[in-house]
Amino acid sequence: MTAVALTLPETADLESAKVLAADLKKAGTSASICVDAGAVATMSTPVALTLVSAVRSREADAPALRIENATPPFLEAFSDLGLFSDLMKMEFPT
Questions:
Q1: DSSP state, residue 21
Q2: DSSP secondary structure string, 46-80?
Q3: Tens of pLDDT, residues 23-73
């Protein structure tokens, strides 16, 4: 199984969402994907929706999307959009 590591920038904006969408598409729906969100200071709706789309399109037996170093702005973006349940479908290391 392929492992893919992605990093979100400090300002996760529309352009970041486009890059993220392309990277996720290239990775496929069954790859092990780890997203480092440690630099995120602001996060746009398109980035949150891109991640939600990736989570919802994962194959049933695929590993959960893994989020490392989630910052408060990263987490708050999902809550602010009413997407907390989708956030909880992601894996967060302890």
A1: H
A2: HHHHHHHHHHHTS-TTSPPPEEES--HHHHHHHHH
A3: 999 999 999 999 999 999 999 999 999 999 999 999 989 999 999 999 999
